[in-house]
Amino acid sequence: MSAVKENAGEPVSGDKVRDQPETGAAPAPAKDAFFEISDIHAYYGESYIVQGLSLTLNKGEILALLGRNGAGKTTTLKAVARTDVPEVKRGEIWLDGAPLHEGRAYQAALAGVQLVPEDRRIIEGLTVEENIFLAQVAQGRGWELERIYGHFPRLAERRKQDGVTLSGGEQQMLAIARALARDVKLLLLDEPYEGLAPVIVQEIERILLEIKEIGITTIIVEQNAVAALKLADRAAILDTGLLAFTGDAQEVLDNEDLMQEYLAI
Length: 265
Ligand SMILES: Nc1ncnc2c1ncn2[C@@H]1O[C@H](COP(=O)(O)OP(=O)(O)OP(=O)(O)O)[C@@H](O)[C@H]1O
Ligand SMILES: [Mg+2]
Fold this sequence. Notes:
- This protein is of the alpha/beta class.
- It has a domain at 35-112 and 185-263: P-loop containing nucleotide triphosphate hydrolases (Rossmann fold).
- It has helices spanning 73-81, 105-110, 128-136, 145-151, 153-157, 168-180, 198-213, 225-231, 249-253, 256-263; strands at 35-44, 47-57, 62-66, 87-95, 98-99, 113-116, 186-190, 217-221, 234-239, 242-248.
- Helix 3 runs parallel beside helix 6 (168-180).
- The radius of gyration is 18 Å and the shape is globular.
- It starts with 34 loop residues before the first strand and ends with a helix.
- Residues 44, 47, 49, 67, 69-75, 85 line the site of adenosine-5'-triphosphate (ATP).
């Protein structure tokens, strides 16, 4: 296993983009990985949360991003999706050759990043189908409706139902379906299994494996670490904003100490 304890360098204040590597900074990223985070430092105001995180993923891989409450998992997903907060003061984020660190959420979405936040954000007063249509209005249109329904038969059955009246699991499926309607390359899922029965978790796992097969790359943040690790190829464990482990998901499942120390299992 490769256990990494990276110490944070002194962050550069002000500019969000580090355009020139500095002396003593992390090595320049290879940029040949499909997705790469290189030495990112993310802040909420003065609060320094993600402290020098680097990761790479190949196309179609699933990464389980794990760690205790407050470790910085959601912050990392937001940093990648380029939401207004947190502020990424230093580091680079690349997806399929696109420098996400140079743009904001809109550009990241155009480049193929879709964040499905914990609350799923289903729009009230719109049916299942209308929620999907709204996602298809965006540039870079993704899957057609019938393709989506082929992968989500439950949504097909409920296509005329108000989206917010769906069960939690169905809402999660709709949130993923909307991301697919937008031509996603990198799917960021924040606690998709929260509050769901095991049988529904299995259904979502099946869908995530199907979309992996067609080359969609996924980062899944989950409190249900075992389920996420069984699904994932790779794992990264955050510990108060630092990368405590990165490697194969199976290595974490096989390592009781790691599971206990960082995942409280
Ligand atoms: N908008 C914010 N403003 C200030 N601090 C924040 C904000 N959002 C999160 N934080 C802080 O950043 C740290 C990391 O939070 P984050 O939400 O990334 O953790 P997490 O790993 O997703 O935890 P959980 O498993 O509980 O969801 C926490 O200490 C949290 O209090
Ligand atoms: Mg979180």
